Automatic annotation (TrEMBL):
Every Adenylate kinase active site lid domain range: 128-164
Xref: InterPro entries: Adenyl_kin_sub, Adenylat/UMP-CMP_kin, Adenylat_kinase_CS, Adenylate_kinase_lid-dom, P-loop_NTPase
Region called NMP, residue ranges: 30-59
Species of the source: Bombilactobacillus apium
Record protein name field: Adenylate kinase
Length: 218
C-alpha cells in the first residue's frame, strides 16, 4: 500500500503519520529524510542537491524528482509500501510522481488529506507564549499558566510571542500552504484517490477515520 499524506501546518499530520506507520508497516518517507540520505550517501543527485542548498538556493523540481525516484526504487520498498510526506508540493511534482510510479511499476493507492478549518489552526499555532523572565513556554489552549498572567515557574508577569507564533504570521503561512495545496487536491480528487479526513477532533477519532479508509484499500 502506497500513500501520500497531506495537511496544513498544525493539522496533526505528524501524529497521524506515526500511527499509520505503526499500524500498517509502511515506510515513512519525508522530503527532508530523502535529501539528507542522498547527500550523506553522496549519490549523484544528492551531490547536485547539495550544490544548490550550500548556495542557499531552492532545489529545482527535476533534482527533487530524481531524489524521490532514487528513494522509491530502493530495495526496502520492494516488499513494503511507502507513505510520502512533503512531496509532491506542486502540480508538476505530482505529474512527476505519477511518471516515477509507472516507471517503477508502483501505484499511489490513496492520498489522505487531514482537514482542519484555518481559523482553528490559527488558534492552535498562535497560542504559544513565553515567559520573558525564565523562558518557560505555555500555550493558551493546551498549556496555560495556572494563574492567568503569572508564570508557574518564576512568578513573572512579562510574556511575549515569537514572530513565527503571532496570528498574522501564522495566517499568512496557512494562506500560502492553502494556495499550494489546492491544485494537488483537485488533481488527486480527479484521480479518484483523495480521501479527506476531519482533523478537528480527538486524535483517536481522526485515526479511526484514517483506518476506515486504509482498511478498505490495503
Amino acid at each position: 500500500m502506497n500513500l501520500m499524506l497531506m495537511g496544513l501546518p498544525g493539522a496533526g499530520k505528524g501524529t497521524q503519520a506515526e500511527k499509520i506507520v505503526d499500524t500498517y508497516s509502511v515506510i515513512h518517507i519525508s522530503t527532508g529524510d530523502m535529501f539528507r540520505a542522498a547527500m550523506a550517501n553522496e549519490t549523484p543527485v544528492g551531490v547536485k542537491a547539495k550544490s544548490f542548498i550550500d548556495q542557499g538556493e531552492l532545489v529545482p523540481d527535476e533534482v527533487t524528482n530524481a531524489i524521490v525516484k532514487e528513494r522509491l526504487g530502493q530495495a526496502d520498498l520492494a516488499s513494503q509500501g511507502y507513505m510520502l510526506d512533503g512531496f509532491p508540493r506542486n502540480i508538476d511534482q505530482a505529474h512527476a510522481l505519477t511518471q516515477i510510479n509507472q516507471e517503477l511499476g508502483k501505484t499511489l493507492d490513496a492520498v489522505i488529506d487531514i482537514q482542519v478549518e484555518p481559523k482553528v489552526l490559527v488558534d492552535r499555532l498562535s497560542g504559544r507564549f513565553i515567559c520573558r523572565t525564565c523562558g518557560a513556554t505555555y500555550h493558551k489552549l493546551y498549556n496555560p499558566t495556572k494563574v492567568e498572567g503569572t508564570c508557574d515557574h518564576c512568578g513573572g508577569h512579562d510574556f511575549y510571542q515569537r514572530e513565527d507564533d503571532k496570528p498574522a504570521t501564522v495566517k499568512n503561512r496557512l494562506d500560502v500552504n492553502l494556495k499550494m495545496n489546492a491544485p494537488l487536491v483537485d488533481f488527486y480528487q480527479q484521480a479518484g484517490i483523495l480521501h479527506q479526513v476531519n482533523g478537528d477532533q480527538d486524535i483517536a477519532e481522526v485515526f479511526a477515520e484514517v483506518q476506515t479508509i486504509l482498511d478498505q484499500i490495503k
